[in-house]
Design a protein that fits this description.
InterPro entries: ERG2_sigma1_rcpt-like. With 214 residues, the protein is α+β, with helices and mostly antiparallel strands. It has five helices and ten strands; from the N terminus they run αααββββββββββαα. Bound molecules: 2-acetamido-2-deoxy-beta-D-glucopyranose (NAG).
Length: 214
């Protein structure tokens, strides 16, 4: 009985803490979706479809504007989630934000996942299609467009050919990692990639936490 009372109190304490933090999440953000959209558009204007150069431009610029929160090492790893396969490199990962370049050179299609963060997907190369159950026309996001998927929304999405994007998520990041890992256990069994992803993500999150960046 006492254990139950204690558990009840603990759950209540954690939920009210989460609730309180949730209304103050914005204070922890260091990136801004409009800033990232503008930066992506100037990178495309400068380098067009030379996506290698576009990515360098973005990372170099962010390293100047956010020197304490940007990982300048490119460490590409494959990611399988919701049936989609792509590769990503992590520019920033913390408890409340992540910023990655994600894409595929040959196309992919699947489930977006239902996430605990708002997700801003800015297309650097190619085109992304998406749609929600109950609609009848695709949403089309060409090069330079920013696709916002709000927290809790779910879509089917497709990149029919080569497509790369700057993906920025803000909200609660740790629960999203489970989705990012699920296909490893049910499909790919690529535990080496899982391990590398965990090491890089963990390192970035802890480095940021050490700088008091939630
Ligand atoms: C990139 O290539 C596509 C397809 O060939 C083309 O439609 C688009 O205009 C190109 N973008 C730039 C910025 O050159």
């Amino acid at each position: 009985m006492r254990t139950l009372t204690f558990l009840g109190a603990l759950v209540a304490a954690i939920s009210s803490l989460m609730y309180m933090l949730d209304s103050h999440l914005e204070k922890f953000y260091v990136f801004d979706p409009t800033e990232l959209h503008t930066l992506s558009k100037s990178a495309i204007a400068a380098h067009g479809n030379d996506t290698r150069a576009v990515v360098d431009y973005i990372v170099e610029h962010l390293a100047k504007t956010h020197p304490n929160h940007v990982n300048v090492e490119e460490e590409w790893v494959f990611n399988n989630a919701g049936g989609c396969m792509g590769a990503m490199t992590i520019i920033h990962a913390s408890i409340t934000e992540y910023l990655i370049v994600f894409g595929t050179a040959i196309g992919t299609e699947g489930h977006s996942g239902r996430h605990t963060a708002d997700d801003y997907f800015t297309i650097l190369k190619g085109e992304q299609l998406a749609w929600k159950a109950g609609t009848f026309e695709p949403e089309i996001y060409p090069q330079g467009a920013q696709h916002l998927m709000k927290r809790g929304e779910v879509k089917q999405y497709a990149m029919k050919e080569a497509c790369f994007a700057l993906e920025y998520a803000r909200g609660w990041i740790p629960p999203m990692l489970f989705f990012g890992y699920a296909d490893t256990f049910t499909s790919t069994l690529d535990f080496y990639t899982l391990w590398r992803t965990t090491v890089i993500t963990g390192r970035e999150m802890l480095t940021n936490l050490a700088k008091m960046k939630l």
